Amino acid sequence: xxxxxxxxDKDGTFVDFDRTWGPAAFRVMERMAGGDRARVERLMAVSxxxxxxxxxxxxxxxxxxxxxxxxPLWAGALGVPFSAAVTDAMxxxxxxxxxxxxxxxxxxxxxxxxxxxxxxxxxxxxxDSENGARHQAARLGIDxxxxxxxxxxxxxxxxxxxxxxxxxxxxxxMAPHEVAMVGDSLHxxxxxxxxxxxxxxxxxxxxxxxxxxxxxxxxLPSIMDLAGWLDARPAAQPSPLANASPS
Length: 247
Prior knowledge:
The C terminus is likely disordered. A six-stranded parallel sheet has the order 5-4-1-6-7-8, with helices on both faces. Strands 2-3 form a two-stranded antiparallel sheet. Helix 1 runs antiparallel to helix 2, helix 1 crosses helix 5 and helix 2 packs antiparallel against helix 4. Strand 2 and strand 3 form a beta hairpin. The chain folds into two domains: 141 residues, HAD superfamily/HAD-like (Rossmann fold, 3-Layer(aba) Sandwich), CATH 3.40.50.1000; 84 residues, no CATH class. With 247 residues, the protein is an alpha/beta fold. The protein contains eleven helices and eight strands.
């Protein structure tokens, strides 16, 4: 089956999660805490953040979740009621600080140019905010390659749910077998499988499981290997996991 479109997760897929979000998140915590060290320490605790190495532990809710997921934890650590105003403030600061520390994986401009040259429609499907995704794609110089960019706040739900991918299928009138989802986590693979699209794992994120191959149709070292995989891919390749349910 011929692929017509590729959807990409962002963090851990073409944005280096640790190098970008470690320092960025610490600055956001400092700003949200208003310089109060006790509040910063509470935020680090609920975020499972190691200040010594500026990284999140793999079990941190910030690794694969959205501000809607960890926002209540931050509100509690700050001693304020949780509300949309809290997630709005967090997302705004994460956009700012995420641009300061933004670090790419491989060469995203070269990858996206190569994929577009093959006639593929490209999209970003992320649990970051849509605004954050758009700003980072622009900073990397790849925003013009994408026909579809959605975040957790775009109105289609968030991964591991299939809503974001299903929105793309509807908007572009494509069948699931014509679309692939590329990501570094089980959230990405579960979303892909639930939507019935081809699931492509990349080993560049903080949550790559040891049994990644069980959950993906193919696992590649990084997005730098996408073009080569496409060129070597048989014309007809059904997805054995397309209709399987997440384990």
